[in-house]
Amino acid sequence: MRRRWAPALLAPLLMGQAKPELVPDVSQRDIEIAYSFTGAELLLFGAIVYPGGRTPSAGERPAEIVVVVKGPTESVLVREKSKVAGIWVNAAQMRYRSAPSFYAIASSRPIRQLVDERTRAIYELGLDSLQLSPASGATPQVQQRFDSGLVELKTRSGLFYEAPGAVEITGGVLYRARLTIPARVPVGRFTAETFLIRDGRVLAAAVRPIEIRKSGFERFVAISADQHAIGYGLVAVAVSFLFGWGAGALWRRF
């Protein structure tokens, strides 16, 4: 009899050890950029599924949600300017093999209040925790200076930003966040990563893909430049020559 009741007595303990799961989604899986594109608002939402379908109890510590949207990586050259004899010139430079072209993070609370520095570095949670890949072996001090410069440039252009408190959690189960996609966003395959955090630990994570691509005439030009580079270059030169010749002829006439 004792053996029969043992699994039933252990079931609550096993359920308590099981981790919750995330069921995320995004409002737009495909974003098309036309000539009139002025940006988009991306809604990220989902649910926290607890073991056994239960809901968080009143005495249980609430779970926190962090959402990170990343663009495709790209090679970036960062130049540092210095003033010489009253003129600003390029003094030093550093190339990065792979840096995210877009990075936005939204969280239910400031990220520094949720996890420690090591966890932020592992999951790249926050602008100061991005794992950039410089191509040259610079000293840590120099690399830190250029890393800060790259993040500052991307932040000024609206391609990097943080939104603490932008994630709303309802009933400890449903969550949603709104992130802005700027007009000058690059095209390519993006990822929306959602992290479930409690007691300073990442309990669950899930990823959803997002595709951003050009449409209409812009798409035709982009495909032509990528797949038919020589022909595209010749056509561009011919069009430039015709416009220049036409402008000159018009100027001589009047």
Question: Care to describe what's here?
Answer:
- With 254 residues, the chain is α+β, with helices and mostly antiparallel strands.
- It has two domains: 20-214, Immunoglobulin-like; 216-254, no CATH class.
- 30% of the residues lie in helices and 40% in strands.
- Strands 2-13-12-4-7-9 form a six-stranded mixed β-sheet. A four-stranded antiparallel β-sheet has the order 1-3-11-10, with no helix packed on it. It has a three-stranded antiparallel β-sheet with strand order 5-6-8, with helices on one face.
- β5 (73-84) and β6 (87-100) form a beta hairpin.
Quick structural gist:
The protein is of the alpha+beta class and 254 residues long. It is 30% helix and 40% strand.
Content of β-strand:
35-45%
Average of the residue pLDDT scores = 80
The CATH superfamily of the largest domain turns out to be Macroglobulin (MG2) domain
With strands numbered from the N-terminus, the spatial order across the biggest sheet is 2-13-12-4-7-9
Number of strands: 13
Q: Which structural class is indicated by helix and strand composition?
A: alpha+beta
User: What's the main sheet like?
Assistant: 6 strands, mixed
Cα Rg: 25 Å
CATH architecture of the largest domain: Sandwich
Mind telling me the CATH class of the largest domain? Answer: Mainly Beta
Shape, per Cα inertia axes: globular
Number of helices: 5
Q: How far apart are the termini?
A: 108 Å
> Secondary-structure element sequence?
HEEEEEEEHEHEEEEEHH
- Enter the CATH topology name of the largest domain: Immunoglobulin-like
Give start-end ranges of low-pLDDT stretches. Answer: 5-16
- Subunit arrangement of the protein: single chain
What share of residues is helical? Answer: 25-40%
Count of the domains: 2
